[in-house]
TrEMBL record:
Chain ranges of the ACT domain: 340-413
Record flagged with keyword Lyase: yes
Protein's name in the database: L-threonine dehydratase catabolic TdcB
Cofactors required: pyridoxal 5'-phosphate
Keywords for this protein: Allosteric enzyme, Amino-acid biosynthesis, Branched-chain amino acid biosynthesis, Isoleucine biosynthesis, Lyase, Pyridoxal phosphate
Pathway assignment: Amino-acid biosynthesis; L-isoleucine biosynthesis; 2-oxobutanoate from L-threonine: step 1/1; Amino-acid degradation; L-threonine degradation via propanoate pathway; propanoate from L-threonine: step 1/4
Organism field: Streptomyces alboflavus
PANTHER family assigned: L-THREONINE DEHYDRATASE CATABOLIC TDCB, THREONINE DEHYDRATASE, MITOCHONDRIAL-RELATED
Subunit-level organization: In the native structure, TdcB is in a dimeric form, whereas in the TdcB-AMP complex, it exists in a tetrameric form (dimer of dimers).
Length: 413
């Protein structure tokens, strides 16, 4: 679903200017990487125009977050630096603040939820921050970090709601214009809005003709109701696998810029996010997290809605391996490449081997087999088998089911 804003390009930019973004770019020389931009033949064929991927998943710390964190902490007064900084994050912002603080010689304390993935906790510590695990959800973690700031005088580094953060993230937009000067459409994932707001300042100041599209997960889409209301509003219980964009309320600073400068905000489903992550891995050879795959999900959802050349921003690649495994299975199921079914067969020696032979002949890969012999629903000589198969797609699923029925099996689901 798409939510179009209804204003014209503003005469002045609120809160953050192009000069701020250019100043941040100078500050980040030698700190952040100018990440690669890679063409995608598969997406280009789908969209009918050139599609490029801006690979912030290859940035230091694995996401764009270092940019804003470094600019924000660099701007602190000497006495503020001496007091240290504190942040709350489940992953990317934590690592960005940790590395930025280490580079600048500032003490950092990062609060993370108790259930944060262990690789992200370890990486944050490795970048030099003290990690404190507090709360079961990010709101509780955020409250603990703010309490710590009040008690100790440490400066709270917000993940998106500060002009310096926005300016730092906007440096991605300057790089995109340099790398793809023929750009017509830019697609960016949106959580609190710091990234898309900074990019909007940079891109719309230099190229107001470029269409800028923000993407939110449908279960955590706070911007559509906020844009409709004309002010940031909260949504209850945002739910999505894309934790990098799971934010219940837009930031005040980025909201003003998104309202003024972003042309559309679209939403994508969990199935579309899974399919996009799978595509990035298989076709682009890019490891991305669900939030980082959200622009690709938007292209998959409505490929002909984007005038090319298109740039899709892969904002991060910090995905927990266990979550990646679940998402890939979900993505393969969404793409019709998993087939789960149950069938009845005669319970006799060799029956299961015969069944597996039929599946082998149909070129289906068996992932899991559950063989049930004792159940009140079954006859004395019957057994029930539950199968999980990997296939080549929806047509192959139908072929496998037909092959089983032709072999005399009763497929019951």
């Amino acid at each position: 679903m798409s939510y179009r804003t209804t204003r014209s390009f503003p005469r002045s930019l609120p809160a953050v200017t192009l000069d701020d973004v250019r100043g941040a770019q100078k500050m980040l020389v030698g700190v952040s990487r100018v990440t690669a931009m890679e063409g995608s033949r598969h997406l280009s064929q789908l969209v009918g125009a050139p599609v490029h991927l801006k690979c912030e998943n290859l940035q230091r710390t694995g996401s764009f977050k270092l940019r804003g964190a470094y600019v924000r902490i660099s701007g602190l007064l000497p006495e503020e630096r001496a007091a240290g900084v504190v942040a709350a994050s489940a992953g990317n912002h934590a690592q960005g603040v940790a590395l930025a603080s280490s580079l600048l010689g500032v003490r950092a304390t990062v609060f993370m939820p108790a259930g944060a993935p262990l690789p992200k906790v370890a990486a944050t510590r490795d970048y030099g921050a003290e990690v404190r695990l507090r709360g079961n959800v990010i709101d509780e973690t955020l409250a603990a970090a703010q309490d710590y700031a009040r008690e100790t005088g440490a400066v709270f580094i917000h993940p998106f709601d500060h002009p310096d953060i926005v300016a730092g993230q906007g440096t991605v937009g300057l790089e995109i214009l340099e790398q793809c000067p023929e750009l017509r459409t830019l697609v960016v994932g949106v959580g609190g809005g710091g990234l898309v707001a900074g990019i909007a300042v940079a891109v719309k100041s230099l190229r107001p003709d470029v269409r800028l599209v923000g993407v939110q997960a449908a279960g955590a889409a706070a911007y559509p109701p906020s844009l409709a209301a004309g002010r940031p509003t909260s949504i209850d219980n945002p739910v999505t696998m894309a934790d990098g964009i799971k934010v219940g309320r837009p930031g005040d600073v980025p909201f003003r810029l998104v309202e003024e400068l972003v042309d559309d905000v679209v939403t994508v489903s969990e199935d579309e996010l899974s399919s996009a992550l799978l595509l990035c891995l298989e076709r682009a050879k890019m490891v991305v997290e669900p939030a980082g795959a959200s622009p690709v999900a938007a292209l998959l959802s409505d490929p002909r809605a984007f005038e090319g050349p298109v740039v899709a921003l892969l904002s991060g690649g910090n995905v927990d391996p266990l979550l990646m495994q679940r998402i890939l299975r979900h993505g393969m199921a969404a793409a019709g490449r998993y087939l789960s079914l149950r069938l009845r067969l005669t319970d006799r020696p060799g029956a299961l081997a015969t069944l597996l032979g039929v599946l082998s002949a149909a070129d289906a890969n068996v992932l899991d087999v559950s063989h049930v012999r004792t159940d009140p629903r079954l006859g004395l000589t019957e057994a029930e088998v539950e199968l999980h198969l990997e296939t080549k797609g929806p047509e192959h699923c139908a072929e496998v089911a037909t092959a089983l029925r032709d072999a005399g099996y009763t497929v019951i689901g």
